[in-house]
Request: fold
Amino acid sequence: MSVSTTAGPQRPKDRPVRNWLLSGLSDQSLQHTGPHARPAEHKAHAWWRVMCLTGVDYFSTLGYQPGIAAMAAGVLSPVATAVLVLVTLLGALPVYRRVAGDSPHGEGSIAMLVRLLSYWQGKLFVLVLLGFAATDFIITITLSAADATAHINDNPFWPQSLKGHEVIVTLVLVGLLGAVFLKGFTEAIGIAVGLVGVYLALNTVVIADALWQVISHPAAVSDWTSALSTQHGDPFMMVAIALLVFPKLALGLSGFETGVAVMPHVKGDRDDTQERPTGRIRGTRRLLTTAAAIMSVFLITSSIVTTVLIPEKEFEPGGAANGRALAYLAHQNLGGGFGTVYDLATIAILWFAGASAMAGLLNLVPRYLPRYGMAPTWARAVRPLVLVFTATAFLITVLFDADVDAQGGAYATGVLVLITSAAVAVTLSAHRHRERGKAAGFAVITAVFAYTTVANVVERPDGVKIAACFIGAVIAVSLLSRLYRAFELRVTHVDTDPVAERFVQECARRGIRLIANEPDRRDAGEYHAKLAQITEDNDIPEGRDVIFVEVEVTDPSEFEEALRVRGEVRHERFRVLVMESSSVPNALAALLLHIRDRTGRKPHIYFEWTEGNPALNFLRYLAFGQGEVAPVTREILRQHEPDRSRRPHVHAG
Reply:
């Protein structure tokens, strides 16, 4: 049977602001990935519609990717972009198609690695990955808003008096994004479909016209090929240089992690099951493949036309094409009216790309940190997190002066680390399933992404510095939260088997007395000695009914868990309740409250004092789930049950 031991958050009615901020906290707490979680319900959509939801992030990079490629590779931009496309189609796409199959509920590659790691090293690894993920998503918000500002600032219809205030305009865009989420951001796939459809259509017009300009002006092509032969005469050197500058183009790989994060929205088959949603997996793989194919075509064609038609000086900081190469061609070739329409569409999709990143953060943080006890309980509520992320985005915008080029390194670092971790995860998955060929292929892909990540960090260390700040902040907040929540009752519910239930009901007729025993040999002598010691230390009359309680510590780094209690009769005399838990005091406190609620009587539990330094024993409790068991059990009970008349009794002798 199951009895809940957790209480929902109580919010006083006379605190309207606090109640508004924590609105939905009780419901949200039931949907994170703890053992008692309920699967989050999402309205299902056709895969191509969901592709547009992730596409506002992925496709919006066309707003700045061609300019970044031209800045990084110069006249070699098309060759370097071709390398990027090959890595996308032959590297990132196979990796994330595998992630979709192995993690079909939107958890992504981080969850795959979590399943392979446990204890504190696993939690630390997750915190580091979350730091890089936060870098990716936060910089997506700030970089996209900054590029939207560049399109606003360079539009000929934008008032001259408002130009030169990029930081203020970017902060306004970020603030508006935060305001949308504070009000309540509902599923916006319909808006995403419209934005992506319009944006891709406009890009098709701009690039098609630019390709015609290239074909009809062979002199421009000749100038480009002459520059190629002059600067890079050897074709092999061209490829080698393109490989060297490829890490700077890694922004074009963004969107894959978001693609698997939105999997729960993909409509599956009628016979899909929670364990194996085959239809959803198939639809998500179509989503990833189609998005990668569309983006590859646009990347190649946009790099050709922008490199051939735009003077190199215009790509430099302050140039008319800096951060907005295709917009430059739209205004140059199709007129100010069409260019303004293109700017508006670009601004909208870049701003909505920030919404996609914010939604990713709001999905990622509550999934892990509160579950690990490494964030306050309010971190499961949307609005407080929105305020934290928006304030962080404000800070990043000011620090980087709303500069698209300056933020490229940090963005690429976050993207590359996540893709590399995904490649590692699928390599280990293939190895575990004894798929030697696939494991070898994924290992090669992992090596490529590892090289790209290292090269990006060496070339642009600002990215890893920003990521290190995020990682440090995540770890510091996590440790402080774990310390602050040390005495929180974190057992989600208690299940007792029939034997354990019978033990409790039999004792409830007279008095429920439990003896906490740290199991050793588990022979008859151990239980005789323990009973004699507790009887003497606490002056319990002989012949009283007692039940021994033993807790086997599992993974002490876990925070929330279900508690399953089984009853055993040992040596034909001693009744024992056996539990497995990450924390001895928490398990005992939850059991006592469960017994009280089931029987209506307050149980007594007897301990012997722990030998040694109390401070060191408390640290043992924090790190290993055991140590100062008696006082910690009592403190957990006191905090969970403030009414002394209903609180179970704790005795230590």
Notes: The two ends are 33 Å apart (CA to CA).
